[in-house]
Amino acid sequence: MHNLYRMRRLFLSILMASSVLCRAGDAVVLSPDGQLQVTVSDAGGRLYYSATYGGQQVLEPSALGLKTSIGDFTRSLTIVDTKEQTVESRYQMRGTKASQADYQARQVVLNCQNKDQMRFSVTLQVSNHDIAYRYDIPRQKYQKRDMKRVRILAEASSFNLPDGTTTFISPQIGPEKGWEQTKPSYEEVYSADAPMATPSQYGHGYIFPALFHLQGDRETGSSGSSGSSGSSGSSGSSGDLWVLVSETGVGSNYCGSHLSDYQAGSGYTIAYPDPGENNGFGSDFAAIPLPGTTPWRTVTIGALRDIVETTVSYDLVEPRYAPSTNYQPGRYTWSWLIWQDNSINYDDQVRFIDLAAAMGFEYCLVDNWWDTQIGRDRIAELSKYAQSKGVHLLLWYNSNGFANDAPQGPRDCMNTSVAREREMKWMQSIGVKGIKVDFFGGDKQETMRLYEDILSDANRYGLQVVFHGCTIPRGWEKMYPNYVASEAVLASENVFFSEEAAIRQPFDLTLHPFCRNTTASMDWGGIIMNKYLSKDNKSRHTRKTTDIFELASGITMQTSVQCVAMQPNNLGELPQFEIDFLRQLPTTWDETRFIDGYPGRYVVLARRHGSDWYVAGLSAGKQPLTLTLPLPMFTKGETLQCYVDSKKGEPTLTTLKVDKRGQAKVTLQPNGGLILKK
Question: Which CATH class is domain 19-315?
Answer without folding.
Answer: mainly beta
